[in-house]
Write the structure tokens for this entry.
Amino acid sequence: MNASANLDAVFAALADPTRRAILSRLAEGQASVNEIAAPFEISQPAVSRHLKVLERAGLIERGVDEQRRPARLKAENMAAAVDWLAEFRAFWGASFDQLDDVLAQMKQAEAKDAGHD
Amino acid sequence: MNASANLDAVFAALADPTRRAILSRLAEGQASVNEIAAPFEISQPAVSRHLKVLERAGLIERGVDEQRRPARLKAENMAAAVDWLAEFRAFWGASFDQLDDVLAQMKQAEAKDAGHD
DNA sequence: TTTATATATAACTATTATGTTATGGAACAT
DNA sequence: ATGTTCCATAACATAATAGTTATATATAAA
């Protein structure tokens, strides 16, 4: 609901390398918990909890497939994060005039939940 | 040094609303610790520690001005964060074909430290 | 030299995060 | 019915985070 609290959750979720790796994995397609956990050395419950963090941040969605609870990417909140970071594009050292256009499109496309911090 | 560890620090730093507000403040120009602390209800030591977190994440630099240690924005690592997030632009729901061009420019502009993740 | 200002650090507390192992429960297979 | 697979949750240990107050340090001013 609160945009700032949402950004808290999104950035906090992205701060963990395991969770970023999970998101990269999900960019290739949805996957079950065991499929997601396979490449990591941590336990399955630990992965389940990472998935819960990602879900609370709105970065993934869960589904139902027999016993499985596949996770799939839901990247809109990444756009919100980029949107916040875009405030600082003038400080990135390069010329990002075009980015303004892109962000304008983004705001239009996201006209669903407008307000942002 | 390590790009992934760097992203850990950057995203973790961005996960706190006080720190995001500090960065927004610094986008208007460098400021001393007391100037930065003024709008907040937390103590000065707390602000000093937030600044240390931002500095370790490479998001600010400190200067010297008599007794003051002014902080100023250093946004390159924000670009690194956006760069990572850009992997997922295809999932943002809109068409961001132009973003590819922007990112290409970004990579060129950042030809200083190339490797990411 | 003493005092004031600006900031950092130390010591402490409370909360949150991340991992573990053990176990529970749902859905499927036999 | 029983076992197997898949996942979640409970209970716990440890570490990191974020805040506090008290104090130290550096520079400037009187």
